[in-house]
Design brief:
The complex is a heterodimer of chains A (249) and B (267). Chain A is an alpha/beta fold and 249 residues long. Chain A is 36% helix and 24% strand. The chains are: A alpha/beta (249), B mainly alpha (267). At the A-B interface, helix 2, strand 6, helix 4 and helix 6 of A face helix 7 and helix 8 of B.
Chain lengths: 249, 267
């Protein structure tokens, strides 16, 4: 599925939580098939930005458009229809550990499936071929019927990626997907994520702590500091001075 | 700080400072207790008579008679088991939606308050009182018993299920919601799997409680082995009553062991 106009569009967006303002006056446009890294110190607003991009939270001021739809104008049902085109990967602990891998993969289908099919699938797994293919793509095809809580952290992260593949969204939002994996495996996971996006033409927005990974895997870097955009440049134009200023205490 | 002199030992400060008030209260309580006991009309003759009857009862228990009323006993056991199974199934089926509704993290406020009110109502009264109500409404027999046990199952299971749901890992649910899943899909994929082992465990545990209670509610006319027991006592057939009690003990022990084993497997 392709989409012509900007995938994400933020106009003067602010978001506060009670008294704390997490994002202030952020304007960004992200187009199809871009790979954008979000960099910034802890608390800079990276997770808030990702949550705005899939409509999990609404802005306190400004306008968020996802796939051309203004988030605040959407009914809950319409929002869900938009959300099924936006896949999410988290740092960890976001798989349902009591379910086997196949059901976690099929959770990617929930935006498409009617309730009866979703419920039936828990007893009699549906569309197993799709799920098995996705799991093979992330390199652990033998774990299809394993219980998710028996997998290692790296394997769980692969399952999370496979779930996004099953969901087959237009864009993927990844929130520090490699923060809890060792360096070797984080390279592998990021390669996997980049290749999947490249091959299927998906847009990727990924928050990272590792500047080198951001440089090697993304073509645009967005620096966030204290809830504001510090810089928004193609990777080639990001200098060490940019990075230093971003993380300075 | 100065050191306390050894002659003045520390003692806890009295609850009531004024010694006059304190002693007046203690004396008042003693007088009240004596007066209260005197109104009970404790009759030594009746106690002796009771002890005599008690010894005959125990003699009956020592020689339990399974045979002469066996058909009644058998019918009673079957009725109790049927009541337990039906009431547990109905009770659990109703408890699940109420339990979800009574969990603050998944239910909107009006539904939450409504379901909590139901749970509170179902937990207010003891089984026997509810059984009496249903016997008055539905007449004697197992229907009243089934309704009683179903009702009390809701109070027990919905409350514990709701508490369990309130303690689930929200990040797992968030990820399911982010796929564009509807509320019911989020419940079946994100919430239910997290509470399933406990739900099954609680159901088995409640089955065990319901079997025990089915004997109790029978005593007020709500059917089952309790009714058979009540009849046996009414006829002064202590040997039959003894047999019934032994059977109840056996049944309860078997289900308790079984439910313990099943719940351990689920951990």
């Amino acid at each position: 599925m392709t989409f012509e106009s900007p995938i994400f569009e933020l106009r003067q967006v602010s978001r506060t939580f009670g008294q704390v303002s997490a994002l202030t006056d952020v304007s960004v446009m992200i187009h199809a098939q871009e790979r954008v890294a979000l960099l910034g110190p802890s608390g800079a607003g990276k997770s808030t930005l990702l949550n705005l991009l899939n409509g999990a939270i609404a802005p306190t001021a400004g306008e968020v458009r996802i796939l051309g739809h203004e988030v605040r104008r959407l009914s809950p049902r319409q929002l869900r229809q938009v959300q099924r085109h936006i896949g999410r990967v988290y740092q960890q602990h976001h798989l349902v550990t009591n379910l086997s891998v196949i059901h976690n993969l099929n959770a990617g289908n929930l935006g498409r499936w009617p309730l009866w099919k979703a419920a039936l699938s828990l007893v009699w797994p549906q569309e197993v071929a799709t799920a098995a293919k996705a799991l093979a793509q992330v390199g652990i095809p033998e774990k299809l019927y394993a219980r998710t809580d028996r997998l290692s952290g790296g394997q769980q992260q692969r399952v999370a990626l496979a779930r996004v593949l099953v969901q087959d969204p237009i864009a993927i939002l990844a929130d520090e997907p490699i923060a809890s994996v060792d360096p070797a495996r984080s390279q592998e996971l990021m390669n996997l994520l980049r290749d999947l996006c490249e091959r299927t033409g998906k847009t990727l927005v990924v928050s990272l702590h590792d500047v080198a990974v951001a440089r090697s895997h993304c073509d645009r870097i967005l620096g966030l500091r204290q809830g504001r955009i510090a810089f928004d440049l193609p990777t080639a134009q990001v200098t060490d001075a940019h990075i230093r200023d971003l993380y300075v205490l | 700080m100065t050191q306390a002199s050894p002659s003045r030992r520390w003692s806890p400060p009295p609850l009531i400072r004024n010694p006059f008030q304190r002693w007046a209260l203690i004396l008042g309580a003693i007088v009240y207790l004596l007066l209260a006991i005197s109104t009970l009309r404790i009759d030594v003759a009746r106690i002796i008579q009771g002890l005599d009857r008690g010894s005959r009862m125990f003699a009956g228990f020592l020689q339990p008679d399974f045979v002469s009323r066996w058909t009644d006993i058998q019918a009673g056991i079957l009725e109790s088991l049927t009541m337990t199974v039906v009431a547990t199934v109905i009770g659990v089926a109703i408890s699940i939606p109420i339990g979800f509704g009574a969990a603050r993290n998944v239910a909107p406020l009006p539904i939450y308050l409504f379901c909590r009110a139901w749970v509170a109502l179902a937990r207010t009264f003891q089984e026997v009182i509810i059984a009496i109500l249903f016997v008055v409404m539905m007449g004697f027999g197992p229907l009243a018993g089934v309704l009683t046990l179903s009702f009390t199952t809701i109070g027990f299971l919905a409350k514990l299920l709701a508490e369990d749901i309130e303690e689930i890992d929200p990040s797992q649910v968030e990820a399911i919601r982010a796929t564009g899943a509807s509320w019911l899909q989020v419940m079946t994929y994100g919430v239910l799997p997290q509470v399933m082992p406990r739900l099954v465990g609680l159901t088995v545990y409640r089955f065990d409680i319901n079997l025990r209670e089915s004997a109790v509610v029978g005593l007020v006319g709500a059917g089952g082995i309790g009714s058979t027991l009540q009849t046996a006592f009414g006829r002064y057939e202590f040997d039959t009553a003894g047999a019934i009690l032994l059977i109840i003990i056996g049944l309860v022990m078997v289900t308790e062991i079984a439910s313990g084993v099943i719940r351990k497997q689920l951990q």
